[in-house]
DNA sequence: CACCAGGCAAGTA
DNA sequence: TACTTGCATGGT
């Protein structure tokens, strides 16, 4: 039904895992830190996000109540290393206001909902789009939701697995309609795609003609080039 | 110097 | 629906 995607995707997963090993995502101490990191990492290098999170930790404000009290301007200065600091401070405040206003700031209460309702709520927050919402669902709420990002498009397109410019929902369905809803699998798979993308699948490929000699020689992924 | 990073919202056609 | 633009720091 899926045009043999189930087998292809699992072969891709096995090859990536063999090449890169377990990624141990999400690098955070608790679900709330995951959610903050998910907003801060929007179009931003993770190393810069780490500095911002360190600033929040060292200031002792990495919790809902403290962030709720804090002035947006003050917050923006703490997260400055993550870039887009004015808009991200507002986005974090929007999210905090949502959690406090609707769940009394109780994350357990927030997470005690069906996945589709959780996603709907997250997407209602200005500053949380589909990728950020799905990252929170997968890595904070630990739901079997597949996270799609720019690397997912790039890698699958360059390997001839999808048309260019398919929608987020279509790409997500490609994975979720062809794989068992396995939270641990989705966790590792997305993290591996990011790692592989960083390593071999830049926006402007240095090698001539991806789908890549790189993948084939270094990863044994000629199975994807048809 | 140019390019990129674990996106999103708002505006336009 | 399908583009375009603004947002911004820090590494390579």
What would you say this structure looks like, in words?
By secondary structure, the chain is mainly α. 61% of the residues lie in helices and 0% in strands. It is built from 13 helices and no strands. The chain is globular. The two termini are 19 Å apart. The C terminus is likely disordered. The structure holds a DNA duplex (13 and 12 nucleotides).
Features:
226 residues; mainly alpha; disordered C terminus; DNA-binding
Say how many strands there are.
0
Overall form: globular
Q: What about the largest sheet?
A: none
Strand content: under 5%
Q: Terminal Cα separation, in Å?
A: 19 Å
Brief rundown of the structure:
The protein has 226 residues and is an all-alpha fold. The chain contains 13 helices and no strands. 61% of the residues lie in helices and 0% in strands.
SSE inventory with pairings:
Blueprint: H1 5-20, H2 31-40, H3 46-58, H4 64-69, H5 72-78, H6 85-103, H7 107-111, H8 115-123, H9 130-139, H10 150-158, H11 168-176, H12 183-200, H13 213-219
The structure holds a DNA duplex (13 and 12 nucleotides).
